Amino acid sequence: MADLDDLETAGPALYTGRGDSGRTTFGRHGDVAKTDVRVAAYEDCDEANAAVSVVMAVGNLPIGITSTLASVQNDLFDLVADLAVPLDDPVAATARISESHLTRLERAVDHFEREATDLSGRVLPGGTVAASLLYQARAVVRRAERTVWVAVEAHPSTVSPLCARYLNRLSTLMFVLARGANAEHGDVQWAPEASALAMAQEDGDDSPGAAATDGASERP
């Protein structure tokens, strides 16, 4: 492995150092703190897109699902482009989330819900690799939704609530796809109080009375 001091540079540097003060130029919002909730919303949505990309890369999913997720990735780029330009900005945004984006997601949910054998009951995240990754992506999407709602509440005139509504629908799609990915092998069912029961049984096995009983059973 080459030493960092020996590496040659090619072309202009990608780093500028302008953000080293904790501030950044965020789209048409101008100069803001990196801790600004609008920046946090943008970055959480970027993380959600990355989580979807992992599902597509290693989930080994059918082409119908991967094509749907590819469309979702494009939508999430539309969404962050929307967040980067205030609603009241005179310059038109590159893209805006619209009701049609939500309608497409709702149709996808309706379609893939038919492929999930049973959506009743409560399940733990897990099962197949694909389902586990989809559950993880769902959790990231839900966090992104919460952050966008905070941004909407803080800047109601400049941040579109449609972005948060889209993420709400997307988390539902991730859930339905995860359940469908476990359709063949079954979901990991939640068993209320199962951990407490198992611990109680272990404590009982370790009790003096249990040890004496075990010892007695081993005598000739």
UniProtKB/TrEMBL annotation:
InterPro entries: CblAdoTrfase-like (IPR016030), CblAdoTrfase-like_sf (IPR036451), PduO-typ (IPR029499). One of its GO terms (molecular function) is corrinoid adenosyltransferase activity. Pathway: Cofactor biosynthesis; adenosylcobalamin biosynthesis; adenosylcobalamin from cob(II)yrinate a,c-diamide: step 2/7. Its EC number is 2.5.1.17. It comes from the Bacteria. Pfam families: Cob_adeno_trans. This is Corrinoid adenosyltransferase. It comes from Cryobacterium adonitolivorans. The lineage of its organism: Bacteria, Bacillati, Actinomycetota, Actinomycetes, Micrococcales.
